[in-house]
UniProtKB/TrEMBL annotation:
This is Epoxide hydrolase. InterPro entries: AB_hydrolase_fold (IPR029058), Epox_hydrolase-like (IPR000639), Epoxide_hydro_N (IPR010497), Epoxide_hydrolase (IPR016292). PANTHER family: EPOXIDE HYDROLASE, EPOXIDE HYDROLASE 1-RELATED. It is a single-pass membrane protein. GO terms for biological process: epoxide metabolic process. Its EC number is 3.3.2.9. Keywords: Aromatic hydrocarbons catabolism, Endoplasmic reticulum, Hydrolase, Membrane, Signal. It comes from Zophobas morio. Catalyzes juvenile hormone hydrolysis. It is found in: Endoplasmic reticulum membrane; Microsome membrane. It holds the Pfam family EHN.
């Protein structure tokens, strides 16, 4: 019996050691092709850079007004319910009335056209981007910075951030030149016509975009999908990326998940009590929150085209679907407020600008397809999540973000984490919600990145 127990112990130890070694094993960097995603013949593709302006026809606006004015009556909310069942239709009615009677698209169109915009074909997709250079930088060094948004956002999230990043400030020896693209299938950027354009493939697209614009080395920043795409860019192209800043740093590997589970037995192994223990543990509370907020993700990852039909046909439905996220993702406690807390950080005009970008471009279906292209075997078997980032990195953690991860887990992926900030306020849409706070953190991070010995500056 003693020999049997020893044998099982040895076999168990070997299996555990083997499993841990496999979890810690770094896979090779995948070789990704420059896939042609567009609908046209590559030999006939116009590859020139074209100036772009948002110009919506009167017919589109008249159709929108008709749909808003003739929408069905909204179903009343249950008694005593705010936004626990989704957006409260009393609030939604107020927003739709504002949209129909006070929101002036022609004024907002001028606002949205305030920055230079262009389109360029990359891998068969005509991509839209904002490109702002600093005025009168003088002797200050100008650093290129790629900014990437996510869903259900758009380039509109960055409009208050862009001037802060591109304006020289006394005492600072650098300023940014920013490139702000619409993701493929979002807003004014063309969508893929074949399956397979996920975040990893988008990393290739944006590397090629920056190359087409003449940038060999540059900094990158992102939130939501943008955070994942810049993470992949930093992983795949360390020779091109000078530094990566993210307001949604996230590690999703078997080893990181194992650490989180082990931490549930004794949290100090993983997270400082003063840091984020209450945001992560107990895991049952964390997963309950995720269950409440992630129903949309399962729908969009499995049936994006079906949900897209209704959203693309009804502006009221589209606004409800998007604005709900700006309530609970900015602060989950706002779901208990009658007004959803929206005007604490935004104006109705700001929020409707973002909704309008989806409406006028009819891009809601193509935007939500990104979920289907992400949660699949091809993306998860690539091994990219297990490859460490070695370039200088920075993470901005906002307390109301959907998911926060401890530093010990972030360092599993971000091996050269030179800057990490924990803020007392802010949520998922940091660039839109707190542009000055985010801009200051980006500048602070890049100062540290430039002073890092491994930085190529």
């Amino acid at each position: 019996m003693g020999l049997t127990v020893k044998l099982f112990f040895v076999i168990g130890t070997v299996l555990i050691a083997y499993t841990i070694s496999k979890l810690c094993e770094t896979p090779p960097v995948p070789k990704l092709e420059d896939t042609w995603w567009g609908p046209r013949d590559p030999s006939k593709e116009d590859t020139s850079i074209r100036p772009f302006k948002i110009q919506v026809s009167d017919g589109v606006l008249q159709d929108l007004q008709h749909r808003l004015s003739n929408a069905r009556a909204l179903t009343p909310p249950l008694e005593g319910v705010q936004h626990q069942y989704g957006i409260n239709t009393k609030l939604l009615k107020n927003i739709i009335d504002y949209w129909r009677t006070k929101y002036n698209w022609r004024e907002r169109e001028k606002f949205l056209n305030q920055f230079p915009q262009y389109t360029i074909s990359v891998q068969g997709l005509r991509l839209h981007y904002i490109h702002v250079k600093p005025t009168n930088p003088g002797k200050v060094k100008v650093l290129p910075l790629l900014l990437l948004h996510g869903w259900p956002g758009s380039v509109r999230e960055f409009y208050d951030l862009i001037p802060l990043l591109t304006k020289p400030v006394s005492g600072r020896d650098f300023v940014f030149e920013v490139i702000v693209p619409s993701l493929p299938g979002y807003g004014f950027s063309e969508a893929a016509v074949k399956p397979g354009l996920g975040p990893i493939e988008m990393a290739v697209v944006f590397k090629n975009l920056m190359n087409r614009l003449g940038f060999e080395k540059y900094y990158i920043q992102g939130g939501d999908w943008g955070a994942l795409i810049v993470q992949h860019m930093a992983t795949l192209y360390p020779d091109r990326i000078l530094g990566v800043h993210s307001n949604m740093c996230f590690v999703n590997s078997a080893l990181s998940n194992l650490k989180l589970i082990l931490g549930s037995f004794y949290p100090p192994l993983i997270v400082d009590k003063k840091e984020h223990e209450s945001k992560i543990y107990p895991l049952s509370t964390f997963f309950s929150k995720m269950m409440l907020e992630m129903g949309y993700m399962h729908i969009q990852a499995t049936k994006p085209d079906t949900v897209g039909v209704g959203l693309n046909d009804s502006p009221v439905g589209l606004a409800a679907y998007i604005l709900e996220k700006f309530i609970t993702w900015t602060n989950e406690e706002w779901k208990n407020l009658d007004d959803g807390g929206l005007t604490k950080k935004f104006t109705y005009a700001d929020l409707l600008d973002n909704v309008m970008i989806y409406w006028i471009t009819e891009s809601i279906t193509t935007s939500v397809r990104l979920y289907s292209e992400s949660f699949n075997k091809a993306q998860m078997s690539s091994g990219v999540d297990k490859i460490p980032i070695t370039i200088p990195s920075a993470c901005a953690r906002f307390p109301n973000e959907l998911a926060l991860q401890p530093t010990i887990i972030l360092k599993e992926k971000y091996r050269n984490l030179v800057h990490i900030t924990d803020f007392e306020d802010g949520g998922h849409f940091a660039a839109f919600e707190l542009p000055k706070v985010l801009a200051d953190d980006i500048f602070t991070a890049v100062v540290k990145m430039r002073s890092t010995p491994s930085s190529q500056k």
